[in-house]
Design brief:
Elements (H helix, E strand, L loop, with lengths): L1 H12 L13 E7 L12 E11 L16 E3 L9 E7 L4 E11 L6 E7 L18 E5 L21 E5 L2 E7 L3 E3 L13 E9 L5 E6 L2 E6 L2 E6 L2 E7 L6 E8 L2 E6 L2 E7 L9 E5 L2 E10 L5 H11 L6 E6 L12 H7 L3 H44 L20 H15 L17 H23 L2 H33 L4 H58 L3
Antiparallel strand pairs: 1-6, 1-21, 2-5, 3-6, 4-5, 7-20, 8-9, 9-20, 10-19, 11-16, 11-20, 12-13, 12-19, 13-14, 14-15, 16-17, 17-18
Helix pairs in contact: 1-3, 3-8, 4-7, 4-8, 5-6, 5-8, 6-8, 7-8
Length: about 575
């Protein structure tokens, strides 16, 4: 059912896009790196940017992709050139993934920096190349999401197990409690004298922390009462204040006799500093309380714009990356889905159940409203026609239904009440004689009361008939919103549980699930609102017909009493 609706939506909302890289892949996502004023502005082109690409159900079709993500392919803007990438995490159940992809060139002040993520090929084999998603200058990348803390380039592991916190910046992160996380000395982390270095790390400190964020040889990144600084040999660079309880991106570049300090992608301090031999063990978080994530070390001086875009792509609130799901299964074109497709694709099972129940309720409500509307319109029209005959009748008052004349009033509730009254009179031998003078038999007051009681009983039954099935509308009015709210609450709970389990707090991953959960409330309101309007309209019409029946009964009994009561 779900896949049918998605396919139908794609068929209805499709528009042609760019050429398709490979017809064997059924879906792709369009990823835009916006360096214009609307995104993350830059002044210079950036090469070999390691892009942290977050995929979720709102921008990638996990339903058609393989469970292990082995059919994922990243392609450059020309839609021809495959890009080197590495999957750090691919969770098909919770529909979340983190992929590192190396973007060769990012132009400044442009929203035309595009790459494509392809998926949906059950026959695709996993990429055999040992790609890391980083360039050759990257010496080590510590994602810090596992107990051994092994880096993604050379596999350097920590000397002791890490305390991993599941909800880090990019998945898992290392919890710091004051004791340093130590990585043993390695030739891959050795920077010769007069060499170059760039080190960056994400830190979420507790209030006004002090300690050493990172240290290797004569180089250290320090905190003093929440203020960031760096030591390069005997040179000290004083930076700004870190925001406690929030993620801060810290970076240091060293080379060519200059050292520069960066905080959250912005230049924070600069000083002249020679590069001495940097080697030895790497210590992280000595005396620091908080959470640390994504430590990267390069053997080159990264440009300010490189660091800015790197921080923007990895951070939670960055405006650099915009990703949208595309579809289509031909090389000639691709389908661009609308918002409703995204919402439908992200519906949870409980939300589907609620929406289906609401759909059944809506169909029942529509049937009742149509049937009752036809009934009251016909009854009202027939009542007016019969009432006109009744009021114009004189001596033939009790013979309006004879000789087939009643067939024209078969939908009139007033005629049925009239027939009930005539039936009771006939039982008393009144109105049965051909000679109208013989019909003038007197009727007692007790008999007249009995006749009125019998007609009143029929009026009650007529009222029950008019109000039958109206309770289904009241159920739809009262129950629809509550059912929708139940589906929304359950869907939001499932979404947040999945996000917590996956450790990705990116708003782009949360938003589709919550938006889809709200569809259940929309479904409930879609049932209740038309049912409310229909119920009020029908209740008003039924009330008028009921009033006409009460008036008619009194009018009928009065006419009978005038013509047939004993003097």
């Amino acid at each position: 059912m779900r896949h049918f609706l998605v396919a139908l939506s794609l068929a209805l909302l499709s528009t042609h896009a760019h050429a398709w890289w490979n017809a064997d892949w059924s879906h792709r996502s369009r990823i835009v790196l916006d360096t214009s004023a609307a995104g993350q502005p830059t002044r210079e082109a950036v090469q070999a940017l390691p892009l942290a690409l977050r995929l979720h159900s709102g921008n990638f079709d996990f339903a058609s992709a393989k469970d292990d993500g082995s059919d994922l392919r990243l392609v450059a803007a020309d839609d021809k050139t495959p890009l080197a990438f590495r999957i750090e995490r691919f969770d098909a159940v919770n529909e979340l993934a983190l992929v590192w992809v190396q973007v060769q060139n990012v132009l400044p002040d442009s929203d035309k920096n595009v790459i494509y993520a392809y998926g949906g090929n059950a026959k695709a084999a996993a990429e055999t190349a040992a790609a890391t998603g980083f360039d050759a200058a990257m010496l080590a990348v510590f994602h810090l999401g596992t107990a051994d803390g092994a880096d993604a380039v050379k596999g350097i592991k920590s000397s002791q197990p890490l305390t991993v916190e599941a909800t880090g910046l990019l998945g898992g992160a290392a919890k710091l409690s004051g004791a340093a996380v130590v990585f043993p000395a390695s030739d891959s982390l050795r920077i010769p004298a007069n060499g170059a270095l760039t080190v960056s790390v994400w830190l979420k400190p507790e209030a006004n922390p002090s300690g050493t964020v990172l240290q290797i040889g004569p180089l250290a990144l320090n905190l003093k009462d929440g203020k960031f600084s760096a030591r390069v040999g005997t040179t000290i660079l004083a930076g700004g204040m870190l925001a406690p309880g929030a993620w801060n991106h810290l970076a240091l570049t060293l080379g060519g006799g200059q050292a520069a300090l960066y905080l959250n992608g912005a230049s924070d301090a600069q000083a002249s500093a020679a590069t001495a031999l940097i080697e030895g063990e790497l210590r992280v978080g000595d005396g620091v309380q908080g959470v640390v994530d994504e430590l990267q070390i390069s053997s080159t001086v990264r440009s300010p714009d490189w660091l800015l875009l790197s921080a923007a792509s990895q951070g939670i609130e960055g405006k650099l990356v915009r990703a949208s799901l595309e579809g289509g299964d031909t090389a000639e074109g691709a389908a661009q889905p609308g918002y409703m497709i995204i919402l439908v694709k992200n519906l949870t099972t409980d939300a589907w159940a609620v929406i289906l129940i609401c759909g059944v309720m809506l169909l029942v409500a529509i049937y009742v409203m149509i049937a009752k509307t036809v009934l009251v319109i016909r009854a009202d029209k027939a009542n007016r026609g019969f009432l006109s005959r009744f009021r114009n009748a004189k001596r033939e008052l009790l013979k309006l239904g004879q000789e087939g004349q009643g067939a024209q009033h078969k939908e009139s509730s007033l005629y049925r009440l009239y027939s009930a009254g005539v039936r009771e009179l006939n039982k008393r031998d009144i109105g049965t004689h051909a000679d109208e003078h013989e019909d003038r038999k007197a009727i007692s007051g007790a008999s007249l009361n009995a006749i009125k009681a019998a007609v009143d009983a029929d009026m009650v039954r007529e009222s029950h008939k008019l109000n039958s099935q109206m309770v289904l509308l009241t159920i739809a009015i009262a129950g629809g919103p509550f059912l929708g709210l139940l589906g929304t609450v359950a869907g939001v709970m499932v979404t947040f549980a999945a996000i917590a389990a996956a450790g990705d707090v990116n708003v782009n991953a949360i938003a589709p699930g919550i938006a889809s959960a709200l569809l259940a409330t929309v479904a409930g309101l879609a049932v209740a609102i038309p049912s409310l309007f229909g119920y009020n309209y029908l209740a008003s019409r039924i009330k008028n017909i009921s009033a006409d029946m009460q008036i008619f009964v009194d009018e009928f009994i009065t006419r009978v009493a005038e013509d047939y009561s004993a003097p």
